[in-house]
Sequence to fold (170 residues):
Amino acid sequence: MTLSTTLQVAVVAAVLGFALAFPTLYPGNASPGAACDSHPEKGFHDHGDPVEEAELAFVVKDADGDAVTEYCPGSTYDVMVTFPSPFKSKLTVSVGELGEADAGCPNMANFVGDEAFTPLAEYSTEWTIPCSEDGDADSATLTVTGATSESSKYLRNKLTLTQKDTCDAC
Fold:
């Protein structure tokens, strides 16, 4: 093997190993027509089956910075997700759009770390609920799935908020 070929193989191996830590790249998301809100339902590559993990915590805050358990259509909230250790993850919302959304999937954000792709223990993004039929759902669910490394099991948690009975934003 020449030095050039060896280097190419090493780069491909490093990229593949790096990519496999992303829940966004599991086969369900890679298939055409996959739903933007899908999450791994089983293990993939070296990841074990997803398990519910309460230590993956959500805090949703309104424009005043107050934590909320209900939402109003026509409003924007700050969503912070914290992990017990540095983590790469996928966040989805069943209603509305995320500020750090992926192209083509406004309800899905991939949190891959800092500029050097170093996992972080906390991520935040905006969540906007429209004044539309989608925004009129009785509840909204935020789901996060992620992993701490290429070989750790997937961890997941969900938070469901109900729509307020009276909202003035729309």
